[in-house]
Amino acid sequence: MSPSDDDTSRPASGSQTNDFQQHRTQRSRTGEGRPKEARADALVVARDSDPPVTTEECEQLAAATGYRIVTTKTQRGHPDSGTYLGRGALETLAETVAELDVSAVIVDDRLTPGQHHGIWDVLPEDVRLLDRYRLVLEIFETGASTRRASLQVEFARLTYELPRLVAATDAGRLNRFTESGTRVYDVRDRIDHLERQLKELPDPGERFRERRREQGFDLVTIAGYTNAGKSTLLHRLADDLTLEDAAESGSTPNDRSNKDGTATVADGLFETLETTTRRATIDGRPILLTDTVGYVDELPHDVIASFSSTLSEAASADVVILLIDGSDPLEAIERRVAVSLEVLDEQGVDRDRLVPALNKVDAINGSEQRERIALVRRLLDEPIALSVRTGRNMNALRRAVASRLPTESIALEMPLGDDAMSLISQAYDRTSVEDVTYRDSTVVLECRGRPEVLEQLRSSAPSYPKD
Ligand SMILES: Nc1nc2c(ncn2[C@@H]2O[C@H](COP(=O)(O)OP(=O)(O)OP(=O)(O)O)[C@@H](O)[C@H]2O)c(=O)[nH]1
Ligand SMILES: [Mg+2]
């Protein structure tokens, strides 16, 4: 490592040395409540010019793919453009890898193809090198349960690997880099092929929006950083699910299935890998509620979005609940809200449609809650402080969502009869009915709901016979 790599005026977290900080982890970080088979021992490396350099989230991501983290190494300083770590640190890394006999090195950052190659070069043949992006793709690879998802994740992986493959080829390391000996042109062909196949496959999100447009449903999406409690909220609000269904499933990275496929709840990152939609009732009106894949820092969300259609769900929603994990430290909340807003902004979700909610307030004390509310208010807007687990403030959340749904009111006077009764029953199914008044020969229905739905009711209401 060259001395200029490091900002020596600031102490690294936990130590005064400029070299790697090595921490032996006492236990594998497998995420509570979700036992995982350890697939391989791995070493996590992080480098940042801004202390403290933490690896906690990366370790959780690694655990979500089944890696057992035996050591973390943190280093402060700007990433070296060629080797990421700098020469000296690279040598230390190679020694540690040999000494501990780990089978993977995980770098908590996005490596350029050149940096990837620079580190790769000093590692033993059979040691895998993954950066944060590749690590997350691996989670998605193990969790892809539909054909579309498998194709999309393969597309993302190959697009990521291609420039690295080219870098390795230039350096005459083709066979070693590719593991299976795939050649650059094979990969290019495969990428083209996948792109064509994906274009031909129907987009389930598009079908869903189509159906919703026809039926006049309100659409509410739950978005937020991974592990914020989104799936738990879906279970709390959906008409046909209960919180008991959400009891931690103990699924492994390779088996995330439960009875509804994707909306499993567990204390681990990226438990949900595909969107799940359920019917819910808010303010008496039927809505479609969608649980989405969580966001995570330093990840091109377009890839994950196309994989899961998470973002298109948010873009077409009437209301997006932005769920924030209130049990996170303040700095983490600040970063995670920023990541979430960045992704939502990219998709053109305007702030008027956002309902910020600070979850897990059961896990923090009153002053911590006040600090977090003030922070979110500064970053975005006044959040609703709630606990999906205990049910606290759920009604405030429902009211906030209802107040942002497109709403109109009508009063329809109809001649009494079967047609009127059938229309009233439709109104109960599709709107919030405020009053039904029976008179001698007529009935007056007053209801609130989505403008298109009210228009449909109005146009199909029985009318008086003309004299
Ligand atoms: N203390 C507390 N824990 C909660 C609350 N809501 C959810 N959790 C827990 O938070 C963890 C994550 O919940 P999930 O619902 O799986 O979170 P998610 O946002 O869907 O996570 P991903 O799908 O991984 O992005 C689980 O262990 C939940 O039991 C809450 O109100 N209070
Ligand atoms: Mg989830």
Automatic annotation (TrEMBL):
Mg(2+) binds at S231, T272. One of its GO terms (molecular function) is GTP binding. Belongs to the TRAFAC class OBG-HflX-like GTPase superfamily. HflX GTPase family. InterPro entries: G_HFLX_dom (IPR030394), GTP-bd (IPR006073), GTP-bd_M (IPR032305), GTPase_HflX (IPR016496), GTPase_HflX_N (IPR025121), GTPase_HflX_N_sf (IPR042108), P-loop_NTPase (IPR027417). Pfam families: GTP-bdg_M, GTP-bdg_N, MMR_HSR1. Residues 29-40 have a biased composition (Basic and acidic residues). Gene3D superfamilies: GTPase HflX, N-terminal domain, P-loop containing nucleotide triphosphate hydrolases. Residues 10-20 have a biased composition (Polar residues). Its cofactor is Mg(2+). This is GTPase HflX. GTPase that associates with the 50S ribosomal subunit and may have a role during protein synthesis or ribosome biogenesis. It is found in: Cytoplasm. HAMAP family: GTPase_HflX. Residues 1-41 are annotated as: Disordered. Its main location: cytoplasm. One of its GO terms (cellular component) is cytoplasm. Residues 218-409 form the Hflx-type G domain.
